[in-house]
Specification:
alpha+beta, Isoleucyl-tRNA Synthetase, domain 2, seven-stranded mixed β-sheet, four-stranded parallel β-sheet, 28 helices, globular, RNA-binding
Amino acid sequence: MSTTQHSYPFPEFEPRWQHHWLSSNAFRAKNPGDSDFDPAQKKQYILDMFPYPSGEGLHVGHLVGYTATDILSRYHRLKGANVLHPMGWDAFGLPAEQYAIKTGQHPRATTQKNVANFRAQLQQLGFSYDWSREVSTTDPEYFKWTQWIFLQLYSAWFNPATQKIESLSTYTGQDPDSVRLAYVADIPVNWCQELGTVLANEEVVDGKSEVGGFPVERRPMRQWMFRITTLADRLIEDLEKVNWPDSIKQLQRNWIGRSEGAEVIFKIKDQSEKTITVFTTRPDTLYGATYVVLAPEHPLLDELGIASEALADYRKSCNAKSDLERTDLAKTKTGIPLGIEAINPINGEALPIWAADYVLMSYGTGAIMAVPSHDERDKEFAEQFDLPIRTVIENDVAINSPLINGATAAEGKNKIINWLEEHSCGRRKIQYKLRDWLFSRQRYWGEPFPIVWENGKHRGLSEHELPVEPPEMEDFRPTGTAEPPLAKAKEWVRYSENAVRELNTMPQWAGSCWYYLRFCDPHNKKSFIGKDAETYWKNVDLYVGGTEHAVLHLLYARFWHKALFDLGHLTTCEPFQRLVNQGMIAGSDGQKMSKSRGNVVSPGEVIAQYGADALRLYEMFMGPLEHGKPWSTTGVEGIYRFLARVWRLGMQQDATTHHWSVSSNIADIPLTPAQQKVVHATIKKVTHDIEALSFNTAIAQMMVFVNEFTAAKPCPLEALHIVLRLLSPFAPHLAEELWMQLSNHFPSLQKIGISASQATWPKWNEEYLLLEETTYVLQVNGKVRGRLTLSTTATKETVEQEALNDPSLQPHLEGKKIQKIIVVPKKLVNIVAN
RNA sequence: GCCAGUGUGGCGAAAUGGCAGACGCAAGGGACUUAAAAUCCCUUUUCGCGAAAGCGGAGUGCGGGUUCGAGUCCCGCCACUGGUACCA
């Protein structure tokens, strides 16, 4: 397609403006201390979730959120705010490492290439990022501070007395390692042989690795952990303080999974020195317990010395089952009786003890008291193995429970827990689903830990030794053993005569946990964020990204933020004030966009044909930001036609030379009252809709506006400079170009703004929206039967009278008695008659 | 199973409890043109009556309810999408 066939010359001016914005640093955010910084200016921090720069590049689905935040950013600048709108790269991670292994290139090289590609793609859309603040998690100047933050958390603990994270210097106990926020533990982890690494629970899907789909097995290994569970309650409570979608808050609450209940201690019959501790949320059903179950992995099974072959076989078969199989077999429960009994502390009853894999070792104490009468799973198990079932609740009150008969659940729980505590056989307990955060990975392409090992003990490096850079290595493939690839860099590993470096690296979450803080002060050499910058920018006002990060990224970032807040480095306790999730864009076939389906639309093709403005506008016009929706090529064409109409509102083309010049139809004349109404209604609606992130309806209103003025002969200049300002956050190139063309022709425009992106946002005047007359809808019994135009100042009585006299209503009122007349001022009259 | 979300024309979608379908796509018709593209104008939820202007009925997943009035609020279902899965 040749340039002359385009409906407006975007291929010429879009790159020109992009270059202009970049070279003039047009969207630089001002920091305290900058010469042009104005403390009175309102700040706005508008952030996209920064991308992982994959080799695939961006597709149009990635741009929904970026376009939305760009519109907001440009809007707030026009409203006079100091806007921080940065972009960076979450560039550590497994795919780069695997690609590197496959192709023999260093991940740093492929990462750099991918970043360059991503940056170019984003710049082609004219996004108004402050590129002087660009950061990459793989930059030593960046991960130096990731490591520094790790060290702060490493030398901190959660003080239960103050309910805060404090420096370890306030800890007075014997063993700081038992309370450290970052600690080492030997725990069964998800080991993936193929990837040569441990995976977090959430990176394992159906017993296979989320990346690559390789088998995963459980294996005990020494790992770095974070005591995120210490902040579980605050992570729940502080959700009240942020403006996030309820669904995301709910996901976080469910993930943390707080449940209140009790631990109950069961003595083992004839071995009273041994006990089983169970967790229950329903201590009030204690009298209904008819057996006790241990998880097959429960350590007590070894201690009890039950040498049955059947038990050994059962435990073996459970161990061999993948998570997937356990789920598949969920319908039929399996288990094995141990032949010993536990004593119910409340009534001294002896209950059989079973081992069964429907009880998980990883939750609670790995043991339960089974109350088949009031728990679905226990009931299923009891029915299968013919175990007794005893009802202890009827009509919401306790029965067959001597201590609490007649009590409600809440009363019963309290009484039982008190009794247990008095008799030292149990206690009140709050249990969380959330586990401590497994923070180490056996990879090359990640941040090394700033930790060395000496005489079997770990020690943090000091600040001046940071950053700890990964060693240059030819071969960073997995070792095939539990040893991480860094083990191969013998010289690097050796820290001193008697100290070696930690060989694990941090997970990808590390860099993304705090990047929003670095953007506030990206070049600070002395601190991860300067005090002035921190107190000025505080936290993110609007954070836009996909739901896939609803739980983990947001939870981990909140955890670090709170820790840094408690330690006095930050002045806010939540990182992201407002959160919005953009919807997914599907292919035109309604399927998820993917290479294998062949339905991927790349921004490049769309821009070549319709331009960046059309792509931006279409992304927003498709529907509500949060909704998923399918891509439509003809939809882009419609938007493109709209932009061409805007262009022709200002410009006309010479029939023979095809040269565009300012339209002779434009005149610096006042708006007619009718035009004034459209103009001011549009300013009002576009302003409200942008603030509500309802971009599709804002665009629709601008279409109404343009349709109105396309017919205007001549077209008043005022209409143009207003619509260009309203449009400029959405279609900045076109607005900028037209503004320039028009102000060359009408110098008065320069008083309003030297460019569309450096003008002020127009204000509407409510007066122009008031009308002298309005059309009432006339209803009889709720059905529209006529219309009536009346003065807006007409009294209720007048409106009623006029409506009753209206000829179009007479056939519907005939022979009926009027019961009631409802008048909605300036809108509607409903006559109720029968 | 549980949690969350969504159901409105041929399609994407609009509608502070007050004219359902704004705006756009697609489709059909017309103007301009030697022709096409581009552009501009008109029609387009559906059924019935009418040559037409028009008139009348139905209609927002299904069934109830509140209300003068419900796409919107309440109760009970159904379907789809996403998340989660024996969490005691």
